[in-house]
Amino acid sequence: MHREKITMNILTINGLKKTYANGVRAINDVTLEIGNGMFGLLGPNGAGKSSLMRTIAALQKPDEGSIKFNGVNIIDDPLYIRKNLGYLPQEFGVYPRISAYVLLDHIAVLKGVVDKAQRKQQVISVLEQTNLQQHQHKAVNTYSGGMRQRFGIAQALLGDPRIIIVDEPTAGLDPEERYRFNNLLSEIGEHIIVILSTHIVEDVKDLCTDMAVIADGCVLSKGHPSDLLQKLENKIWLKTINKSELARYRDNHRVISSRLNAGKLIIRVLNSGLPGEGFESVRADLEDVYFITLSDQQDKTESYV
């Protein structure tokens, strides 16, 4: 929706914990403060991202901790967050053989937009914003993957939300669809809180001004991407080696990542000084931050075993 005046919003999460009946601790003492803009929640599959998103969306209650949105405790008052929330879950089901316009009109009613003229205006607006107006009379089940994701954002925008949660939104999209979808998210994030939950580092790097890395239900690091990169300045080194040499380099160096290129391996190493002959200094990127953070967590876990 178009806004002339930007209202500041604050989501405050403090000491959040959630353990499921099967014993899995999905959220482990998470504390975050999120304001307007794009916030990236980055972590591998099974890290607890979806559990955290469902808890913020008041779809489940935590065992401990608090969540406040603009000062209102949404655990005690879940209707408050639901009235202000747009949510695109990882698995977003759609009704077959129903046009986008009809389905959006139905969803708008469910979100409390009861005035017919207002509802029509909102539906047309979100269709235009997601570039689906020319496809509004087509059944949503005939849409491509990228169009379905844009439809998902269109339904999330209904009701003029002040916070939007998108869970793994670009998984499975081709590069062009992913680029188009990310541009849409970036525009939306200028006015409200948009939480992007993903395991794709590039999405966070391209879109988010603030982020957190999560694994095993814990927030491992958080901050502005530029600040996290600053900590690795002059500490990332690159070298091309033979595949057979990888084990030896891992024994002697902190190898962050490796990738195959024309039959050779390109390794990235963390070290405060020149690690050895043949290494060249390179600028740190967000993948380095991500892999180092996950590696540190794995080392801690293994040390307890």
Could you explain the architecture of this structure?
With 305 residues, the chain is of the alpha/beta class. The protein folds into two domains: 10-223, P-loop containing nucleotide triphosphate hydrolases (Rossmann fold), CATH 3.40.50; 230-304, no CATH class. It is 35% helix and 28% strand. It contains ten helices and 14 strands. It has helices spanning 49-56, 78-84, 100-110, 116-129, 145-157, 175-188, 201-207, 225-230, 246-252, 286-304, and strands at 10-19, 25-35, 37-42, 64-69, 72-73, 85-88, 163-167, 193-198, 210-215, 218-223, 236-241, 254-261, 264-270, 280-281. The strands form three sheets. A six-stranded mixed sheet has the order 6-7-8-3-9-10, with helices on both faces. A four-stranded antiparallel sheet has the order 2-1-4-5, with helices on one face. A hairpin with a 2-residue loop joins strand 9 and strand 10. Helix 4 packs across helix 5 (145-157) and helix 5 packs parallel to helix 6 (175-188). The longest helix is centred in the C-terminal third of the chain and has 19 residues, at 286-304. The chain is globular.
H/I helix tally: 10
**CATH topological fold name of the largest domain:** Rossmann fold
Question: Overall mean pLDDT score?
Answer: 90
Major β-sheet profile: 6 strands, mixed
Number of domains: 2
What portion of the residues fall into strands of 2 or more residues? 25-35%
CATH homologous superfamily of the largest domain, by name? Answer: P-loop containing nucleotide triphosphate hydrolases
